[in-house]
Amino acid sequence: MIVITNPFSVENETNMIQSLFAEGLSFLHIRKPDFSELEMAQFIHQIKLEFRDRIVLHNHHLLAEDFGINRFHFSEKERKNMTDSPARFLKHCRYSTSTHSIKDFNSLESDFDYSFLSPVFKSISKENYHPKKDLFEETKSRTNHKTKVIALGGIDSQNIQKVLQNGFDDIALLGSIWKNENPLKQFKLCQQIALSHLQSQV
Questions:
Q1: Residue 175 CB: number of other CB atoms within 10 A?
Q2: Tens-level pLDDT at each residue, the chain (202 residues)
Q3: Integer CA distances (angstroms), 17 to 41, 51, 187, in order
Q4: Which residues contact 151 (CB under 8 A, 6 or more apart)?
Q5: Which residues make Cβ contacts (< 8 Å) with residue 124, sequence separation at least 6?
Q6: Which string of DSSP letters, residue by residue, matches the chain?
Q7: Pair 149, 169: CB distance under 8 Å
Q8: For residue 187, what are the contacts with CB-CB under 8 A and spacing of at least 6?
Q9: Which of 31, 108, 115, 163 could lock 151 by a disulfide, CB 3.0 to 4.6 Å apart?
């Protein structure tokens, strides 16, 4: 299960992030588009060393080496503007990206470990951001099985099971965590539902 940071500051944020990691969070995507390089460095510095291999950087990628981070996310726009594959951008690193249609997802190069496919439902964190296509129907046309497809957009404890039963490999949470009055409790609930589903598939 993946959590994406709120693009805006959240009270007690880095302490909450460390609590999420301690509860078993797989990956945290740090998406702070307005952060300067210094602000990003200060933010990462507050996260314990033991958790940094689970951090995924959306920007200021050049900070990664200093902090022992080897995971990078490229937006759809960044990916489409690339003249070279990400594997040649930084060696021995892992990559993820964003897609908004199954056609785009199917055409991904194998450099990417996983891709967000969104929005699955009406967004919790972005106003007036809702699906233009039924992504459950779309995933039936999936031909790319080298890259994991991660559901993003409006995912919460009420719909996780439906998402995982309909062709998605995993989920990413943003609004359901950071807009909740108890983010940690909400995370543990969502994690429990996702793990129960995975165990039922074994």
A1: 17
A2: 999 999 999 999 999 999 999 999 999 999 999 999 999 999 999 999 999 999 999 999 999 999 999 999 999 999 988 866 555 555 678 999 999 999 999 999 888 999 999 999 998 887 777 888 899 999 999 999 999 999 999 999 999 999 999 999 999 999 999 999 999 999 999 999 999 988 887 6
A3: 16, 10, 11
A4: 116, 117, 118, 120, 135, 163, 168, 170, 171, 172
A5: 154, 156, 174, 175, 176, 179
A6: -EEE--SS--TTHHHHHHHHHHTT--EEEE--TT--HHHHHHHHHTS-GGGGGGEEESS-GGGHHHHT--EEEE-HHHHHH-SS-HHHHSTT-EEEEEESSHHHHHT--TTEEEEEE--SS--SSSTT---SS-HHHHGGG----SSEEEE-SS--TTTHHHHHTTT-SEEEESHHHHTSSSHHHHHHHHHHHHHHHHHHH-
A7: yes
A8: 3, 20, 23, 25, 173, 177
A9: 163
Tokens standing for 4?
């994406």
- Residues comprising the chain, all counted: 202
